[in-house]
Design goal:
The chain is of the alpha+beta class and about 775 residues long. Among the domains are: about 90 residues, no CATH class; about 120 residues, no CATH class; about 190 residues, Nucleotidyltransferase, domain 5; about 55 residues. The chain is built from 26 helices and 20 strands. The strands form six sheets. The chain has a five-stranded antiparallel beta sheet. α8 crosses α9. The longest helix is centred in the C-terminal third of the chain and has 63 residues. The protein is extended. About 25% of the residues are buried. The C terminus is likely disordered.
């Protein structure tokens, strides 16, 4: 085995010399330390000139190119080294042949240097990653998400928060001493390591390839935390630079009116609605026979057929156009919002988490015997529970259990326990949460859920269970409350023999069933939460003393935690959300359904006719999200009317009026849409020259020279007339202002004269 300090390479005028350590010589060549010390080194020393004999007594000694006998040696850091070229190779010993060749030794040194360099680089990157991970704050992510109006995907929000942590870390690590703490020799090497890690991460809006690009990105990073958050957010999101349809509105050059639709929209929408005609041509025919020929008359390139269909089939436009295209019957049945009715009946902050086996219970399980027949037999299982506890008070705020017959934690168990903790905490801010790396806490679904309930979520490093306060808290709970229960057989998975029950005397019949075991556990939790601690207060009393920064959670966050979820198609909503089906007792009303509401949904879902949204709902409302997690809007619970007049109350009558108004508003918006399209379309015949001049000013001259000259002369005449009128108005204004200034000067002079008169009069009185 060759150690890192076994080989030295020294550069001389005759080239590199290779030296091996005494340890390696003894191990490989079979020479004893005593022979090297008492014979060979002394023999070589005696062969040297007198001046070099004295130098050999120094702490570090290497002879240059001065010739000597065999076993030429040197010393460095108290260790002896021998020149490979001077090690004897005579028979029968052949010491030099027992060592690797000179080329192999040099290659080994190079390999060691390369390996050491790679290990140092990997360690540098690892230390930087750990330091940045400590700076990632969920508060930054929540702020960015709220600032963007819940429009950014969750992955992008997380990337923005991580990029912000990287910028803060790099900004505070700017001196040679600071970078050396992480293992970097220079500031430049520090930036290179950061750039390498960031290149692997590929964070949104913070793509870095080299150290130079990283330095350039950090220029202008603000010091104020609020400004830092604004700096990190991309300004490119949501722009419409590539949009064609709708960017150039039609203008009435006689009145100056700007129409809502541009030439593309006016033609395609009118062709689709086909007002007053019963025929309904296919979209391909509308594109080939109407849209493309009309645009060619104005020398405007049409959009692709795919884009044409995309704009027409948008659900937000279908709501406004299908009344005219398909008739009132179809529109009323499929698209028009309706009045939902009621049935004709009477009727109404640090937190920690951990999972553990607590008690044992008996249950009947199905087994198959040797003959293949299924029978039931009594078996015993651990009641596995997830516990959520407040660290400061020790209060167990939430818990959940594994299903009967199972003894492992799942993400659903964790989420159920957290929901209970949120409720028992009064639906207020829960600042931080810590747990181990168990599957129930570390899976992606659970991690996102925890980030909704807590401002900051962290997990302890693997193999560092003592860093989780839950280990201590739950051990105290089990030893003080559960230990006396007969079905409690162990305190943890790795409990010592002293904390394990003797199972020899217990049978399956001696254990309670699943339901009874849960009831026993709930009583134990209640006893623990109301048991006085050494300070004289119970965990429940201490839990009531909350952090002054606690605030009630908003309705959207509460629904993300407690609400139910489902995926719905927007084309089947008809103004309402009914997540549980058409006969659901609770329905939710899409606000501003025919205008802003459906437009917001369409923007978030990509304008598809049958796009999907995720509904997160409870009894208080329903929040709509895009499939990638962007918040769209909140739908309140709708007021229900009554089908029978005899059962109507004032609330039912108000609901009836409200929904009637919504239907009228939707019809009104559809009619207005049709009229505006028709009005814009009707202007196309009067805008031949002006439209071409507006869209193609360089080609307007080619229409006709006479028309251009007439237009230019008229424009020049109007310009000169306007200039003359402006000059007259300016002169009139100047004369008026001069009169005002002259009057002001006269008023000042009169006031000054009156003041002097009064002052003189007062002095004369004094003299008298």
């Amino acid at each position: 085995m060759i150690l890192p300090n076994d080989i030295l390479i020294r550069e001389t005028s005759d080239g590199p010399t290779v030296w091996v350590s005494q340890r390696m010589v003894v191990e490989r060549c079979g020479v004893s330390d005593k022979d090297l010390r008492t014979v060979y080194r002394l023999r070589y020393k005696s062969s040297l000139p007198t001046s070099w004999r004295k130098a050999a007594n120094r702490s570090e000694f290497f002879l240059g190119s001065v010739p000597g006998k065999s076993w030429r040696w040197g010393r460095k850091n108290g260790q002896y080294y021998y020149d490979v070229d001077t090690i004897p190779n005579r028979k029968p010993c052949c010491y030099r042949d027992r060592l690797p060749s000179k080329e192999e030794l040099i290659a080994q040194v190079d390999e060691n240097r390369l390996r050491d360099s790679r290990e140092r680089q990997a360690e540098l990157r690892r230390s930087i990653r750990e330091a940045v991970a400590e700076l990632v704050n969920e508060e930054d992510a929540n702020w960015i998400r709220i600032y963007s109006g819940y429009q950014l995907p969750l992955a992008t929000v997380r990337d923005y928060a991580r990029a912000l942590a990287w910028c803060r870390f790099i900004c505070r690590t700017t001196t040679q001493k600071q970078v050396q703490l992480y293992g970097a020799a220079t500031i430049g090497r520090f930036y290179e390591a950061c750039a390498e890690v960031l290149a692997e991460l590929r964070l949104s809006n913070f793509r870095v390839g080299t150290a130079a690009s990283l330095r350039k990105k950090m220029i202008g990073f603000p010091s104020d935390p609020e400004q830092q958050r604004l700096w990190i957010i991309s300004g490119k999101a949501g722009n419409s630079n590539r949009r064609i349809v709708g960017k150039q509105p039609l203008i009435d050059y006689e009145t100056g009116e700007i129409f809502r639709f541009d030439i593309h929209e006016a033609i395609m929408f009118r062709a689709y609605m086909n007002p007053g005609n019963p025929e309904k041509e296919h979209l391909q025919e509308l594109y080939d026979k109407i849209y493309c020929p009309l645009l060619s008359e104005f020398q405007i390139a049409p959009v692709a057929y795919r884009t044409f269909c995309n704009h027409i089939t948008r659900f937000s436009k279908r709501i406004l156009m299908d009344l005219e295209r398909h008739g009132a019957g179809y529109y009323k049945k499929h698209l028009l919002t309706y009045t939902p009715t009621e049935k004709l009946s009477y009727a109404h902050s640090l937190f920690c988490g951990d999972g553990s086996g607590l008690l044992q219970y008996s249950f009947w399980k199905k087994v198959r015997d040797d003959k293949g027949r299924i029978r039931e037999e009594l078996d015993v299982r651990n009641l596995y529970a997830i516990l959520i506890s407040d660290v400061a008070s020790g209060y167990i705020a939430g818990w959940s259990f594994s299903p009967e017959g199972f003894s492992k934690e799942t993400p659903d168990m964790v989420m159920e326990a957290v929901r209970m903790a949120v409720r028992n905490g009064g639906n207020q801010t829960m600042f931080e949460f810590v747990s181990d790396n168990a599957p129930g806490f570390s899976q992606g679904e659970t991690r996102e859920f925890l980030k909704c309930a807590f401002n900051r979520v962290r997990r302890i490093k693997a193999g560092n269970s003592q860093a989780n306060p839950a280990e201590t808290q739950f051990r105290l709970f089990k030893n003080s409350t559960l230990r006396s229960i007969r079905s409690f057989v162990r305190s943890s998975h790795n409990a010592s023999i002293k904390n394990r029950a003797n199972l020899d005397g217990l049978r399956a019949e001696d254990y309670p069933d699943y339901a009874t075991t849960i009831a026993i556990f709930k009583r134990a939790v209640e006893d623990w939460n109301n048991k006085p601690m050494p300070n004289g207060k119970t965990p429940a009393e201490m839990f009531a003393n909350k952090n002054p920064e606690c605030r009630p959670l908003d309705a959207v966050s509460l629904r993300l935690i407690n609400g139910s979820r489902t995926v719905l198609s927007i084309s089947r909503m008809r103004g309402f959300i009914a997540p549980e089906g058409g006969k659901a007792e609770v329905k939710y009303e899409i606000p501003n359904y025919s205008t802003e509401g459906i437009q917001a949904i369409q923007r978030a879902t990509g304008y598809g006719y049958d796009s999907k949204v995720e509904a997160v709902y409870d009894r208080t409302g329903c929040d709509l999200y895009s499939i990638d997690g962007r918040f769209i809007l909140t739908c309140p619970v709708t007021e229900l009317a009554k089908m029978a007049h005899i059962e109507k109350t004032d609330a039912h009558r108000r609901a009836q009026l409200h929904h009637s108004h919504r239907k009228q508003e939707q019809i009104y918006q559809s009619e207005q849409f049709r009229e505006r399209v028709q009005e814009a379309y009707s202007k196309l015949d009067d805008m031949d020259y002006d439209t071409v001049a507006h869209f193609h000013p360089n080609e307007a001259k080619a229409i006709t020279n006479d028309a251009y000259d007439t237009y230019a002369a008229l424009t020049l005449q109007q310009k000169r007339s306007a200039e003359r009128t402006l000059k007259r108005n300016q002169k009139t204004q100047e004369r008026h202002e001069e009169k005002q200034r002259q009057q002001a000067r006269e008023d000042i002079a009169m006031a000054s004269l009156e003041y002097r008169k009064k002052k003189i009069s007062d002095i004369s009185k004094y003299l008298k």
